[in-house]
Specification:
Layout: E1 2-12, H1 17-27, E2 31-40, E3 43-53, H2 58-71, E4 74-81, H3 83-92, E5 97-104, H4 109-121, E6 125-131, E7 147-154, H5 160-174, E8 177-182, E9 192-195, H6 206-214, H7 217-228, H8 234-243, H9 251-258, H10 266-275, E10 279-287, H11 288-298, E11 302-311, E12 314-320, H12 326-339, E13 347-351, H13 357-362, E14 365-369, H14 373-378, E15 381-383, H15 391-394, H16 399-404
Parallel strand pairs: 9-10, 9-13, 10-11, 13-14, 14-15
Antiparallel strand pairs: 1-3, 1-4, 2-3, 5-7, 5-8, 6-7, 11-12
Helix pairs in contact: 1-2, 4-5, 6-7, 6-9, 7-8
């Protein structure tokens, strides 16, 4: 027989706390059934659930725990737990676990309140919250530097689709990003990340930039926008736009490449992924010239994009070979994963346009980045408030961990 005791300690953190507490419990042959600790600004919260064999003087143990807690400046709360309550607690571990990632320019109480309300309404409960972004100095609290917290939730929800819809609506209301994903073995074991290029890795649509040099900028930009919103067929729109580039000097490609601006967070993201051993790929409906330019600059492993035909140093207005449209992107993603022996559950796909949806839908983690409305509504996850390196938070990496990479 045994007695079950739940003991909660709180107070100023000190190096001797755990050794002092566990030392007393050891004298009474306590078995640790659960233990958890967190420290927020040097304030400790420590909880232990212990099983004490019958025959030990439980009341004396409680007195000893109270005395040692007082001696090291801790408050303590102790309560006996019934076998039935313990059995109920054990049953909870069989429930699914999910991670809600909240990304915002700043963290406000209203955000936590409304997120927790959605969680509760869907029959879930929060079992852990941790900050992934670094602490800010007081003189930077009003800066839009970006904040991220990760919320672990458990339970069964009847309608995951509605839960995602509620989070999407709340994210729009609050001006934040909310990602909801299963806390399974794949979450921190991704191995391949595939990116769209234009308006994802770079802050431009290169075909629009080339069109400006060809004197057809407004005409091409209007078609590009419709294609990215999914209003017209991508392949058809690309052929039409490329035809308008006929006669453009090939040197214009180098001029556009030299002026490309990388999206916020790209360099940090790619360097971190490479150091962690990820495989990276560009799957673009843009042009291979610019994909190779980024490959040389950032070190991507694969580049697939459309090839402009150039004859006598002039753009002919034609594309060589198969067009990399939405379906082609998804197919290429599968090919790379198979070649690298990577399961699709371990794949991340990132894009902003409607032609990215096929690859976003088959990836284990599909992310709409600063995306068009149709893409944001269809993708499982989206990021709009942070730079591209916000993806690292969705992998569960903290700023502290990333500094060590």
């Amino acid at each position: 027989m045994r007695e079950l005791i739940l003991i909660n300690f709180s107070g100023v953190d000190k190096p001797s706390v755990l050794s002092s507490v566990s030392g007393i419990l050891a004298q009474y042959e306590a078995r640790m059934l659960d233990i958890g600790q967190t420290v927020i600004h040097d304030t400790l919260a420590l909880g232990v659930l212990v099983s004490i064999p019958r025959g030990n003087d439980t009341d004396k143990m409680l007195d000893d725990v109270a005395n040692v807690s007082k001696s090291i400046g801790l408050q303590v709360r102790m309560q006996k737990i019934s076998d039935a309550d313990y059995s109920h607690w054990v049953m909870q571990q069989g429930k699914p676990r999910y991670i809600v990632t909240l990304l915002s320019h700043r963290l406000d109480a209203v955000q936590i309140a409304k997120v927790s309300d959605v969680v509760t309404r869907h029959g879930l409960y929060i079992d852990q919250i941790q900050r992934l972004s670094g602490r800010l100095p007081l003189d930077q609290l009003d800066n839009k530097t970006g904040t991220c917290v990760e919320i672990s939730v458990r339970g069964h929800t009847a309608d995951v689709g509605q839960l995602r819809a509620d989070f999407l609506e709340l994210a729009s209301e609050l001006g934040v990003d909310l990602a909801y994903q299963a806390a399974d073995m794949f979450r921190r074991n991704r191995r391949l990340v595939a990116f769209d290029m234009d308006s994802t890795l770079i802050e431009a649509e290169v075909i629009d930039e080339l069109a400006k040099l060809a004197g057809v900028g407004q005409q091409v930009a209007a078609v590009t926008e419709r294609a990215m919103r999914g209003e017209i067929d991508f392949s058809e729109s690309l052929r039409h736009r490329v035809s308008l580039l006929k006669g453009l000097d090939a040197q214009s490609l180098a001029a556009v490449a030299a002026g490309l601006k990388l999206t916020e967070g790209v360099e940090r993201l790619i360097s971190t992924l490479k150091r962690l051993g990820y495989c990276t790929a560009i799957l673009s409906g843009g042009f291979s010239y610019f994909g190779r330019y980024l490959q040389d600059k950032l070190g991507f492993d694969y580049v697939y994009a459309n090839e402009l035909e150039i004859i006598d140093n002039k753009v002919t207005g034609h594309v060589i070979g198969n067009i990399v449209d939405g379906e082609r992107k998804a197919s290429l993603l599968q090919e790379i994963a198979e070649k690298e022996n990577i399961a699709l559950e371990q794949v991340i796909a990132v894009g902003d346009g409607a032609n990215d949806l096929p690859m976003l839908s088959i990836a284990g983690l599909g992310i709409a980045f600063r995306a068009k409305p149709v893409v944001k509504q269809s993708a499982k996850q989206s990021i709009s408030t942070h730079g591209l390196d916000g993806i690292l938070y969705l992998l569960g990496l903290s700023d502290k961990e990333m500094k060590k990479v």
